[in-house]
Design a protein that fits this description.
mainly alpha, two-stranded antiparallel ribbon, 5 helices, globular
Amino acid sequence: MTLRRLQPPEVLVDLLGMKRNTITFLARKGVLPCVKIGKSYRFSLVDVVRHLGIEHVPEVKDAMSRYSEEDWGKAENGGSVEAKN
């Protein structure tokens, strides 16, 4: 995984509708792509969404709408991606 804008597990709680403990468990087991920084896990939303193959799900599309198509292309090529405010 290339370094991008990394998010805490709480962002995935909202996006995936899972408990924080479940998300960190899946990260420890290698199911979710992540970066471990000290005792904390951080996630690239683009990497998680693509890894799970859920980019077509309407709720995920809405949550990810802060990213432009150009940003998704940059992410695919290992570039930096930042959410739009």
